[in-house]
Amino acid sequence: MTTLMADPMLAEAWTLSGSVALRPEPFGALAYHFGNRKLTFLKKQQLVDAVNALGDSKTVADALTRAGIPEAQWPAYVKALRGLATSDMILERKPS
Amino acid sequence: MTLLDVRTPVARPTTGPLVNQFEFGLDAPICLTWELTYACNLACAHCLSSSGKRDPRELTTEQCEAVIDELQRMQVFYVNIGGGEPTIRPDFWHLLQYAVDHNVGVKFSTNGVRLNPERAAFLASTDYVDVQISLDGATAEVNDYVRGPGSYDTAITALQNLQDAGFKDAKISVVVTRQNVTQLDEFKALADQYGATLRLTRLRPSGRGADVWDELHPLPEQQRVLYDWLMANGDNVLTGDSFFHLAAFGESLPGLNLCGAGRVVCLIDPIGDVYACPFAIHDNFLAGNLLADGGFKQVWQTSELFQELRSPQTSGACTSCEFFDSCRGGCMAAKFFTGLPLDGPDPECVQGYGESALAGERTIPAASQDHSRTTPGRNQPVMLTLTRREDLEAPPVSACAENPLAGFRL
Fold it and tell me: Could you say which residues form the signal peptide (chain B) (predicted)?
């Protein structure tokens, strides 16, 4: 365990909300929440890959690894995921 | 056809702000407007699409369903439906349901004519449907002046029906004019009263709007009033990024602050013609037809016009203005329909460059289509106000008045 694991979110299990659709775009993806009508942009393909991997990964850290994101960049991605969480794009789920 | 100067192709940036990505266009629009019909029960003086009569070539129900299927495949998450008056299409409610069932959310604009209690109850039972009631005055007097007699009452009745049915968060959609810009607080109060959200948009000189723009568009000092009001109240008010030309007053308003035409915005008209934006229904901004040119996706992704709009554009005189990064030259449609060059200032440029441009030589382009009814209907607005001549203090003196003091004034 490195000090980067300090963010508790990395050990949590999350998933893309069932009300959200992702649309691939040249820069990454566009996320639309049919419930709260919020539109968000995922500005990097790796973030899209990580978000897509969330549901099948035990933890957020697993999803980031599967998306091929180097550990040094995890804090930035966790910040982006937290942003998505505030608009209910991704939801915390019970660990599987 | 060349809209702007020829430019050298530039590759899409891979980093930097998102707005730069938008300039190069997206795989599918974010904000798609679909005018379902040109038929309308009203004849608003400033109608963007010169609506009135139905176009006999209007897409059939099956063709509309095919459009929705394609939007679903392209993942266009929602569509703004308008007209004309969309609800007077007999298959409107069917198409609404069809869209929602196919993961295409619907926001539709209406004058309220068909929103009786039963329809309001149906709407309250749906998810993914937003309703915008058009209202261009907070009082009947101001509204009916441009939208026609009785239209205020129709809109208010519709809002009442929606509220009674438990429909949450309807939108009151207001085109800001010289006459109603003083009523912004009253509009907000009206929205609060009906549990609605206020939406303000800019008057464009498009369609019949070209005929009345000189009389209706807010005066320069009113633009400032509007900007200040939006800065103070903007968080609770929608604008559809309509007022980005005001950003040159200083602080940017929330939103894109970029002309989205052909990049993130476009319009499908009732016969399937695809235009760069809802305010640009003119042959110069026609990208193609979704029946004739292989479907909407084909037109959106490959039309020559849209490719051109997505390449970096020259902005002529505006480039040297210190506020260029705020407003980026303003609204393309507003320039075009007032006969101003597309690479110059917006006619309502808040730094005053628009006024001098308007004072210069210009030719207002002829409309390329008009669906207005040929004979006036009973709902047609009459934009005349009866007044007295201010210099007259008494009835005129007749030629045969014999009184020696006739016509005498102190």
Answer: none
